């Protein structure tokens, strides 16, 4: 599975980018996107997705 950042709710704060252990998050057009080929939902490293844990916007990062 992979996560997705909802562009219309992303504020572009960049809190999620450095937290991703798979380097799956990058900025594009002022908002951030997740590469679904790299995203593992942090399942192999953490109990919960780290990007969701630090995102200040509820519901911005969702399962695809």
UniProtKB/TrEMBL annotation:
InterPro entries: 4Fe4S_Fe-S-bd (IPR017896), 4Fe4S_Fe_S_CS (IPR017900). SUPFAM superfamilies: 4Fe-4S ferredoxins. The keyword Metal-binding applies. Residues 1-30 form the 4Fe-4S ferredoxin-type domain. It holds the Pfam family Fer4. Keywords: Iron, Iron-sulfur, Metal-binding. It comes from the Bacteria. This is Ferredoxin-like protein in nif region.
């Amino acid at each position: 599975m992979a996560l997705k950042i909802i562009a219309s709710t992303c504020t572009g704060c960049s809190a999620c980018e450095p937290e991703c252990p798979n380097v799956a998050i990058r900025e594009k057009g002022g908002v951030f996107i997740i590469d679904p080929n790299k995203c593992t939902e942090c399942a192999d490293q953490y109990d919960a997705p780290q990007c969701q844990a630090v995102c200040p916007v509820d519901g911005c990062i969702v399962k695809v």
